[in-house]
Hints:
Layout: H1 12-28, E1 34-39, E2 44-49, H2 56-71, H3 91-94, E3 105-110, E4 113-121, H4 125-138
Antiparallel strand pairs: 1-2, 1-4, 3-4
Helix pairs in contact: 1-4
Amino acid sequence: MSTTTAVASLTIQDAEALVDQARRAAEAAGVTVSVTVLDAGGHLLAFRRDDRAVLISGETSTRKAYTALQLNAATADLVDAVQPGGLFHTLPTALDRPLLFIAGGVPVHRDGRLIGAIGVGGGAPSQDHGFAQAAVEALV
C-alpha cells in the first residue's frame, strides 16, 4: 500500500506574506512595484500595486506570475528560450494566454511541490526578479 503525503496549499496568509516581503525589498531599493500571487491553479490570491508604480506593472506582475506557474520556472531563466532559435521562440504568440518572458516571475514550492507563483513588475527586470526571489526565500 502506498501512502501519500499531503502538501499544504498556498494560503492567503502565505500570499500576503509574499506580497509584503516583495514590497519591503522593493521599498528598500527605492522602487515602486506591483506584486501578484497566484495559487497552483492560477487563481489570484493577492495583488498590490504601490500608489506610484506605473500602471502597466499590475499587468506585467500578473503575467510574470502566470508564466512562472505554467512553466514551473523563474521567468528570468526563460528569457533566452523565447529568442529566435530558442526552445520556446513561438510560445508567446502560439497561445492565447497571458505569458510574459521578462524576469520577475518565480514559482513557489513547498516540500518539492509547486503550490503557486509570485510576479513583480515595476522595476528593472533583474530588480523584479530579486524582489520576487527574496519573498519566496522568506516564506516559511
